[in-house]
Amino acid sequence: MTADARTRRKLYYVYALTDQPLPRRLVVGGRILHAVDIVGVGAIVETSREARPATEAALREQHAIVVALARRVNALLPVRFGALFTAAELDARVKSAHDVILSALGHVRDRVQMTVRVHSAAARSARTSAASSGTAYLRARSEREMAVRRSAARIHRAVAPFVVDERVDAGKGALQGTVYHLINTEDIGPYRAALQPLALSRPPLRLSVTGPWPVFAFVPELRRA
Amino acid sequence: MPSAKPPRVAARPGPPRGTDRPGPPRSTRPASSPTRRQVARIVETSDASLLDVLDNLLSKGVVLNADVILALANVDLVYLRLSALLVAADRLLPQDDDR
What we know:
heterodimer, A: alpha+beta, 6-stranded antiparallel sheet, 4-stranded antiparallel sheet, 7 helices, B: mainly alpha, 3 helices, 4% strand
């Protein structure tokens, strides 16, 4: 097998994408990573031979690595867990979405993600019984979605000056929903302070605020292979 | 951060420094006035809770390969339950000596 053929068959586990200069070899979290340049997009990878099991330890480790990487650059797109490619596949995927990736990196530059989870007593009481009718199920689901939108709107009003972008996910069970905000790094403190009054607001909202995180929720939708 | 804190709010001294690792989660304290009913709570933590890890890595992030989504379908289901129950995912998986 030629050296070129071996290179094409090499497997990369991909952690993140960036457009910032990085050393070609870097050690993060005890792992040796490489920054592979693909027409101006840097793919931060680790040479690997097999897929990773989705265990708690592996997930926590990858999360910690991505958080550490995000501190080194001002724009980073985390890659979802389990991205294992040959060098040729990665090259093709990044090139096919090159402009989208660069645009997304510009959108998240010098910004972070804040995650606000809404735990509502109303959501806990609005359980849909397995024995209920389809109409009742759909009605309950619609009410739940409306409740998530109302909560998200209240949260947005409190922090509107700091929000660059927003994503809202409906929840299940005791979790009414999750709101993700993209904010400028310098606004982390004021953003948290702006949420404090919601703790005493009416009707009550129980919120869990976490972050800042790398911008997991604000990555581009790439064309599927 | 203002010195006055609402009951059971985890105080945070300010924006995190750029190169520092997030500190351990701050525990909440009981309300200073036991007769006052706690109507809402904002809990802040800078540590990566398991829910954040699962949420960020399994349902977010750049999707470079759609096959990964299918391969992780079972884990997604565990994640959905986890988001409701806030229980560690690994402990829900069957062990050889369980039951």
